[in-house]
Amino acid sequence: MKSNYFAAAILASLLGGGGAWASGETAGTGPVPTPYVIDHPGRADSLIDMRFLLDGPAGKHGFLSVRDGHFRFADGQRFKCWGVNITGWEMGSALLPPHREAEIYAESLARLGVNCVRLHFLDMRREQKVIDGNGGKGDVPPITHTPSGLIDSRYEDSRHFDPEQVDRLHYLFAQFKQRGIYVDFNLNVGRTWRSGDGVPDHDLIGVAKGVTYFGPELIALQKEYARMLLGLRNPYTGLRYADDPAVAIVEIVNENSLLEFWQRNWLRGERVPGGANLQLDLTPHYARLLTDRYNGWLAAHRTPEQLAQLRVIAGVAQGAAIPFLRRGDFRDAPDLRYRAEIEFLTGVEVDFQQDMARFLREEVGVKSVIMPTADHTYFIAGQPMMRSSAKFDVMDSHVYWQHPAIYGHRNDPMVNRPDLSIPVKLARTAMRGKAFTVSEVNHPYPSEYGAEMIPTLAAYAALQDWDGIFFYTFEAKLLGKATPVIGDHFDITQDPVKIAQLPVGAMLFLRGDVAPARTVVERSYSTAQIDETARMPRAEQPYFTPGFPKVLPLIHGSRVRCLDCAPVAAPPIAPSDTIRSDTGELDWRVAPQGGTISIDTPLTQGLVGFVRDAKRGTTHLSADIGNGFAAITASALDGKPLRRSDRLLLTATAKSGNSGQVWNARRSMLDVWGTAPTWIEPVTGWVMLKDLDGALAVSATPLDGAGKPNGPANSARMLEEGWEIPIGTPATTSWIITISR
Fold first, then answer.
1. What is the pLDDT of residue 572?
2. Is the pTM of this model over 0.70?
């Protein structure tokens, strides 16, 4: 979930403003924004069709498991997820859509190359709480609502499912399965507690992050929910979800770690009615519960002499309870106290996750891959939490480029900061022998540089040989009730740029257009090193490994070899303005005029960033454009190398936004959100396709938001260098290139 534990701020983080240029705003010397609307219902016969990357029905190869560090089916076949989260935060959207919309969006996602979906917020109530965002002024959208999940709102508890919502889930799942789209079920995500649940402080704890690890009532309710959900028999498939191989992954908790609570000073126990209630602090009841458990653990794991010393250090009387440290005291705390706390909290986390996994396997009968939680906060160390996650077969991470609610939105280009880029942050959690997934990621809206995300992440995820990517988020729009607008920071459903790039990313990642790194560099950490990471300042983010060359994952494969073992450091890398992958296919350059990335593979080539001023090209692709920032890709659709391909997908994307939106004075957020229709800044100028063996004629058919022809084909002009294609008129993001030989 995108709020990184801020239970009280979940809605704010999802409603914060986003956008690109205001329609009609002066564009300087660049192209003028032009209306361009994504049409998912019309995509049924789109010329962009990535279904050749899917292998339906989902589950035909048996259950997914992890072998040799990767997802594999029972027959040994490798599997990768190229996916989206399914939510329902915007007005006119649905987490669980009616049958007709379920068919439309399952088909659209399949054609876009999506082969996995992560069903998020199923554990919320059906009722839709509407929030007015002050008419679209400020940094929140005009109107939104909470996702409508499975929990029946007619009861004063959260222990009953709504029959109509259950039927919608069954039908949606069946539509995905039929098309070769696998499902990731999240168990504990956004569930809130009611008086009938018997949960202490139910009205204070919100979604109860952290507390779910040790509150006995909450643990029992999580197990009950898992049994209810995964024990459902789908009438459209005839299988229980626990028995269906189309269920790829079951996640125990979302963005939830007791060790993170400790590192972020959330074990204070000061959450009371009418209090300051800072962030996700515990209530006194749960603070006492955890402290009592800690002191019982100390009595069993420390000597009487150590206990006496701990009380002296903590400044409490002999026989009194020893409290937890506060974050500000970490650096100066004696090892005896500091390391006792991290050892205890790690044990609580491991015990809960292992018990839930045992319950799912033995009592519910789950046969899918089980995932504990996700690494997701990069200004604190990830190594302590990895100790518990590493007990499982898959490691997972979430990341957002300049998250608007958590990290502060600055509208900066990622290509200028390779050391803090999305691929670099994510790579900190990948581990040898474990599958690695990214179950939430986005370059949140508003940004004038969002076009850089998908091709960059897909390329470097393939270089790292990761196993799954799920973009946050996709929302099915209800027919007749939704408008073509980018509705919040995270919804990509109507974003003309990100939807255009999903097929390109699918080919880069699923098809393996980018080869895995030739060399995998491993690092390992001793117990003392892991413990010390939690004391380090934020300046050491994201790796909290002094001396680690942060750009290493842009060059070589990167994995953690082991934890609590003999330490091994990664080798140094000489500073350079050019960061080239060891395969030679990816090249990231930072220059005064701005950063650029080139992708140069046999099947897909691309240029991302400040392309105009960098004047860079690849083996088969170059561009002479009027846009300062753009992402341009060319991919073979017939599986042949570009030099011999007869049919290509060309994408050229820059900025996108809502009509009438207005940036603030700093150009960091919107003052006015804007409305429909969406628009694009068309990439204008010429694209050159080079070294096309035996080409006699080249034409480019522009496509509309449904992937259908948007005008007559443009004939390319043959020059000495290659074939020059004019782009910009009509305004579009995508073309089908046809080559006669």
1. 86
2. yes
Is residue 330 within 8 Å of 535, Cβ to Cβ? yes
CB contact at 8 A, 400 and 442 = yes
Q: What size, in residues, is the chain? A: 741
Residue whose C-alpha is closest to residue 116's, from 86, 77, 82: 82
Radius of gyration of the chain, Cα coordinates, nearest whole angstrom: 26
Dump pLDDT digits (tens) for 444-480. 999 999 999 999 999 999 999 999 999 999 999 999 9
Cβ-based neighbour number of residue 206 at 10 Å: 21
Taking the C-alpha atoms of residue 280 and residue 259, their distance in angstroms, rounded to an integer, is 13
Per-residue tokens: 705 = 């938001």
H-helix or E-strand spanning residue 654: none
- The C-alpha angle 49, 50, 54, rounded to 5 degrees, equals 135
Per-residue pLDDT tens over the stretch 591-641 = 999 999 999 999 999 999 999 999 999 999 999 999 999 999 999 999 999
Q: Examine residue 503 and say whether the peptide bond preceding it is cis (omega within 30 degrees of 0).
A: no
pLDDT-derived band at 14 (thresholds 50, 70, 90) equals very low
Please name the helix (run of DSSP H) or strand (run of DSSP E) that holds residue 395, with its range, or none. Answer: strand 394-400
Residues 6+ apart with CB under 8 A from 676: 37, 483, 484, 485, 658, 659
In angstroms, rounded to a whole number, what is the distance separating the alpha carbons of residues 316 and 10? Answer: 37
> Which of 348, 341, 390 shows the shortest CA–CA distance to 213?
348
Residue 185 has pLDDT above 50, yes or no: yes
